[in-house]
Each structure stands twice: as C-alpha cells, then as structure tokens.
Amino acid sequence: MPRRLFFPIWNRNKAVIASLAIGLLLAVMLLLVLGWWSNASVGAARRTLFWAAIVIALALGGLLLAAGRGFFAVLPMGFAAWRFLQGTGLGNGYGRHHGDASQNDNDSDRKAPCGAQMTRQEALEILGLRDGADEDEIRAAYRRMIAKAHPDHGGSDWLAAKVNEAKRVLLDI
Known about the structure:
Elements: H1 8-12, H2 14-39, H3 42-66, H4 70-88, H5 94-98, H6 120-127, H7 135-149, H8 157-171
Helix pairs in contact: 3-4, 6-8, 7-8
Subcellular location: Membrane
Protein name: DnaJ-like protein
Pfam family, one: DnaJ
C-alpha cells in the first residue's frame, strides 16, 4: 500500500506548487527591489542597472556555454564586455559619458551645474533660437514659449520659470 502524505495534493501537483512557491518568492523579491528603487539616488540606480546588465549577460552566456551552444554565448558575453568597457571609459562609449570631442570647449556651450545660473546657450535652446537673435526675435520666442509653458495654460511652474530665466539671460535684464 502506497504511503500517503497528510497533504495528498502535494503528491499530484508537485510542479504546480513548486511553481507557485517560486512565483511568490519572485514577487516578494520584486517588491523589495521596487521599494529600494523608489528611494534610490539616480547614481545608485544607474550603477545597479549597469552591473545588473553585465551579470545577466554573463549568466546567459554561461548557460549557453554549459548547454553546448558556445557560438550563441558570444553575443551576451560580448554585450557584457562592451558595457563594461564603455562604463570604465576604455571602449568607444567614452565620449558619450565624458563629453564628446566634437563639442566646442567654450564656456558658453557647457551646461550650468544644478542651481547655477543658466548659460546663454541653454537660454537659446529653451527659446528655440540661434545665436545672434535680436531683441524682437527673443521677445517673440518668449511670448510663444510662455503661452505653451504657463501653468494657467496647462504648463508647469518649473517650465515657465525656465522660459522666464532664458528671457532674462538673453536680454540681460
């Protein structure tokens, strides 16, 4: 006579119960990761995503190698190597993270640090103008942009403040 467990459903549906347990565990882990993610700084989140992409690509490559699919393992492992080299500044992605060599080294072209005064180049970009715009063009562009960005017309306070600051910078008010 076969030995019966207290929970007879376990004998019939081991795979289903195991799948549910793994799913529950993954859901709890996802909730913990999302809780961390919502409170993480941008820098910490970028570093985490960077390393997660490398680890996942290496794991996938390792699984493909273990399964005897060495040719297909080259792609994820190559991706991991490319991301690693790009992040360390040794690969072709160096310029994207540390300023393109094609950019001018003029101080007016650089972005101002957070909380600093807006540069002339940023002000021109915000108002959609080119360098050398006269006062009438600046005022017309300001009126056009503030009409779109004003909080009373569906815009935001922050965007309206940026448009006002761009006008102030360009007109030296």
